């Protein structure tokens, strides 16, 4: 995981403006500004989950910051405030430190991907990821992603990897549409998003996603699922999209309840894993609430 080592800016933020930004950030994270010193770490100290990190990213975007990778996603309050103040006036350089490497260097904050030329065309890319239609050659990667120990117990097969032949046979079962997620910067695959089990009469469907484990907790997966959700509402006449969230995934997105989604049901002791039963949350994203960044958790289950 890449982490911030230093944020270098041309000039220091004036104190008054910096404190205004601190108050905005505190409101986003539901903390008192006094609890957000520059040294506070968003995840380790403030307990920011995946949706909270996505919210911070969206807020930074409103101040002109565009992140291309997971740089800065696990930074401190001071890092975030410096980025929000400085990037509108001049490029900001991030000196980063990648796990397992000794090198570091400046990285320019990239711009957003350009919008499609046709205003009616669905948006299938952000500055970080794009959604690509599945190709036959993608099957091997999707299988490897689904059966990885970090993903398999969260995803469709609940810790029991299927035979490759069975995986291929079931890949399109009950599926409305699905996409391979690729990084824009290096074209590498990063995950898989899928809409399934559509009820055309009730005008709803289910959404699932699985990502490379390195994106867990960064907010990046939540952002691309938000992109996928907007695409589904743009393309299909769905009134709402459901998410099935087992209890062991709930801490990753609980901060989004009432803001990005509504909990419509809670099935008690519904899922067995790791020696115990867990509740399962049935969450809904409504089409008329997608003016905010709709999202869901990574690694939700797609049923057989």
Can you put this structure into words, describing what you see?
The protein has 304 residues and is an alpha+beta fold. The protein has two domains: 2-108, Non-ribosomal Peptide Synthetase Peptidyl Carrier Protein, Chain A; 129-289, Aminopeptidase (3-Layer(aba) Sandwich). It is built from seven helices and ten strands. It has helices at residues 15-29, 50-62, 77-86, 139-147, 149-152, 164-170, 220-235, and strands spanning 2-8, 93-98, 106-108, 129-133, 175-183, 189-199, 204-211, 240-246, 262-273, 276-286. The strands form two sheets. A seven-stranded mixed β-sheet has the order 4-5-6-7-8-10-9, with helices on both faces. A three-stranded antiparallel β-sheet has the order 1-2-3, covered by helices on one side. A hairpin with a 7-residue loop joins strand 2 and strand 3. The radius of gyration is 20 Å and the shape is globular. Mean pLDDT is 78; it is low at 1-13, 88-112 and 291-304.
């Amino acid at each position: 995981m890449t982490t911030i080592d230093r944020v270098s800016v041309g000039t220091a933020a004036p104190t008054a403006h910096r404190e205004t930004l601190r108050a905005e950030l505190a409101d986003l994270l539901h903390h008192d500004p006094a609890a957000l010193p520059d040294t506070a770490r968003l995840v380790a100290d403030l307990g920011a989950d995946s949706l909270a990190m996505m919210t911070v990213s969206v807020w930074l975007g409103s101040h002109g910051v565009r992140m291309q990778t997971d740089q800065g996603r696990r930074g401190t309050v001071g890092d975030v405030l410096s980025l929000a103040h400085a990037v509108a006036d001049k490029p900001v350089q991030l000196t980063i430190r990648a796990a397992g490497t000794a090198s570091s260097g400046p990285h320019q904050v990239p711009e957003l991907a350009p919008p499609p030329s046709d205003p009616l065309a669905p948006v299938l890319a952000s500055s970080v990821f794009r959604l690509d239609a599945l190709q036959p050659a993608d099957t091997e990667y999707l299988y490897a992603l689904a059966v990885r120990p970090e993903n398999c117990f969260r995803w469709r097969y609940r810790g029991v990897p299927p035979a490759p032949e069975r995986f291929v046979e079931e890949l399109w079962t009950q599926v409305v549409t699905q996409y391979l997620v690729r990084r824009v910067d290096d074209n590498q695959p990063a995950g898989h998003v899928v809409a399934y089990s559509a009820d055309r009469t009730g005008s709803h469907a289910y959404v699932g996603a699985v990502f490379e484990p390195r994106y867990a907790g960064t907010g990046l997966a939540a952002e691309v699922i938000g992109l996928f959700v907007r695409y589904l509402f743009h393309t299909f006449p769905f009134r709402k999209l459901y998410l099935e969230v087992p209890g062991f995934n709930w801490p990753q997105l609980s901060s989004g309840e009432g803001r990005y989604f509504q909990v419509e049901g809670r099935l008690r002791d519904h899922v067995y894993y790791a020696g115990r039963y867990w509740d399962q949350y049935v969450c809904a994203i409504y089409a008329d609430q997608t003016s905010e960044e709709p999202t869901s958790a990574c690694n939700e289950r797609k049923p057989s």
